[in-house]
Automatic annotation (TrEMBL):
Catalysed reaction equations from the record: [protein]-C-terminal S-[(2E,6E)-farnesyl]-L-cysteine methyl ester + H2O = [protein]-C-terminal S-[(2E,6E)-farnesyl]-L-cysteine + methanol + H(+)
Name of the protein in its database record: protein-S-isoprenylcysteine alpha-carbonyl methylesterase
Organism lineage string: Eukaryota, Viridiplantae, Streptophyta, Embryophyta, Tracheophyta
Subcellular location: Golgi apparatus membrane
Keywords of the record: Hydrolase, Membrane, Transmembrane, Transmembrane helix
Organism: Oryza glumipatula
Length: 382
C-alpha cells in the first residue's frame, strides 16, 4: 500500500494510519492492524527515509490538532471554552516540541490508509529480545472524543526501554462511534495482542492491560465484559486469564442514564456473578490527589466496589499530582518516574535479573525544561 499523505488526512479527518510487515527489533515502534487470529504478518517492508518519518509525524500532529478542535466544537465555544482553548493552545505550544520528537522517533516503516472503524495499534518493541517479553496493551484517554494511539508514545518508549512490548490500541471516538463501539474496538485490539504478540517476541501469557483517563473506563468495560462472556460460556476471541493485571490510570466513569448499567464498571461489577468476579485479574487503580478533571475519589469508589465484590483491587495515590502529571509531565521530566516504577515493580515482581538490569540502567533524559513543565502544569485545562 502507498503512504498516506497529509492531504488524505485532511480529507478524512478521523482516518487512521496502520502498517503491516515483519518484525524489526532495531525499531522501537511499529504499527499493526488487528487481523483475525492466526493470520500472517504480511510481506517485506522498505526502510523509511527521514523525510518520510517527518512527513508522517507532521500528518499525525496535524490530525491530533484537528481532533482537539473537534473536542472544543462539540463542547461549545462560550467564554469558558474559549479560555480553555487558549489554555490548551499554550499548553500544547510549551510541550509540543518534545511531543513531536517523541512521535517522530516512534514512527518507522510505511503507513497505509485505513478507515477509522478498522482501527490499528502501534507496537513499541525493545531493541534486544533474548526471550519472550512481558506485554502491555494500552488504551489511551481523550475524553471519549480525541482518543488516539499516539498519546501512548511516551509510556511506550519508557516501558520498551525496560524490556516490555507496548501495544497502543486505537478506537473510534464520539460522534463517530458510541461507547459500545469504543469498548468493542478496544476488545478487538486486546484480542489481536493476545493472539499475535508471540510473533513480535511477546509472551502471550504475560499480558498487562493499562488504560488512562477515558481509556481506563473503556479498558475496564472491555475487561469486565469479557469476564462476563467467559463465565457464561459465550464464544470469545481472547481470554481474561491471559491478562495478568489491569492498571487504571486516572480513570473515570460515564454519566447519564442511557446504557449506564452496561457501561458503568461499578454497576456491572455489583451485578456480576461470583464466577465473573473470580475471573478478573488483580486490579491496580492509580490516581493523582490533585486531579481536578477526574477526582481521585472516582478510583477510590471503584476500588471499594471491587473489593466488596471479592475482586483483588488496590488504590495507589500520588500526592500532589494532577491529571496530566503522572502521564505527561513526569515522563517529559526524565529521571525517576513514579508511575513507571510502580508498574514495573508489578510486571517484574518475579524477575530479579530484570529488576537488577533496570536498577543499573541510565535514567531517561529530560525532554523539556523544568520551567516549561511548571508553566504547562499551571495552565493545563485538564
Amino acid at each position: 500500500m502507498r503512504p498516506v499523505s497529509s492531504a488524505e488526512e485532511v480529507g478524512a479527518l478521523l482516518s487512521r494510519s496502520d502498517s503491516s510487515g515483519r518484525r524489526r527489533r532495531s525499531s522501537p515502534v511499529q504499527s499493526a492492524s488487528p487481523r483475525p487470529a492466526g493470520c500472517g504478518c504480511g510481506g517485506p517492508r522498505r526502510q523509511s527515509s527521514f523525510r518520510d518519518d517527518v512527513g508522517h509525524a507532521a500528518s499525525e500532529t496535524y490530525l491530533v490538532t484537528r481532533l482537539t478542535f473537534s473536542l472544543l466544537q462539540y463542547l461549545g465555544l462560550g467564554y469558558r471554552w474559549m479560555s480553555q482553548l487558549l489554555a490548551l493552545t499554550i499548553y500544547a505550544i510549551l510541550l509540543m516540541p518534545a511531543w513531536f520528537g517523541a512521535i517522530l522517533s516512534s514512527i518507522r516503516g510505511r503507513k497505509s490508509s485505513d478507515e477509522r472503524n478498522r482501527k490499528g495499534l502501534d507496537l513499541y518493541i525493545p531493541k534486544d529480545i533474548n526471550r519472550p517479553c512481558p506485554v502491555v496493551a494500552f488504551v489511551t484517554g481523550g475524553a471519549w472524543i480525541i482518543g488516539y494511539k499516539a498519546w501512548g508514545s511516551l509510556l511506550g518508549r519508557r516501558l520498551a526501554e525496560r524490556g516490555i512490548i507496548v501495544a497502543c490500541i486505537d478506537y473510534r471516538n464520539f460522534p463517530q462511534g458510541t461507547i459500545g463501539d469504543m469498548v468493542s474496538d478496544a476488545s478487538q485490539g486486546i484480542s489481536y495482542v493476545c493472539n499475535n504478540i508471540a510473533s513480535y517476541g511477546g509472551d502471550p501469557n504475560r499480558i498487562y492491560l493499562v488504560g488512562q483517563s477515558a481509556g481506563a473506563h473503556i479498558a475496564a468495560c472491555a475487561l469486565i465484559e469479557q469476564a462476563v462472556k467467559e463465565s457464561s460460556g459465550q464464544s470469545i476471541s481472547w481470554s481474561v486469564t491471559q491478562i495478568k493485571a489491569y492498571f487504571g490510570l486516572s480513570g473515570g466513569i460515564m454519566e447519564g442514564e442511557e446504557s449506564l448499567s452496561r457501561y458503568s464498571p461499578e454497576i456491572v461489577v455489583k451485578q456480576s456473578s461470583s464466577q465473573t468476579i473470580a475471573l478478573l485479574p488483580p486490579i491496580v487503580l492509580m490516581h493523582g490527589t490533585e486531579d481536578y478533571s477526574i477526582p481521585s475519589s472516582a478510583s477510590q469508589t471503584f476500588a471499594d466496589v471491587l473489593q466488596q465484590a471479592g475482586a483483588q483491587a488496590k488504590l495507589q495515590l500520588y500526592e500532589g499530582k494532577t491529571h496530566t502529571d503522572i502521564f505527561i509531565q513526569d515522563p517529559l521530566r526524565g529521571g525517576r518516574d513514579p508511575l513507571v516504577e510502580d508498574v514495573l515493580s508489578i510486571i517484574h515482581v518475579d524477575d530479579e535479573i530484570t529488576q537488577e538490569k533496570i536498577a543499573l540502567a541510565p535514567a531517561p533524559r529530560r525532554l523539556v525544561f523544568e520551567w516549561q513543565l511548571q508553566l504547562a502544569r499551571r495552565i493545563s485545562p485538564f
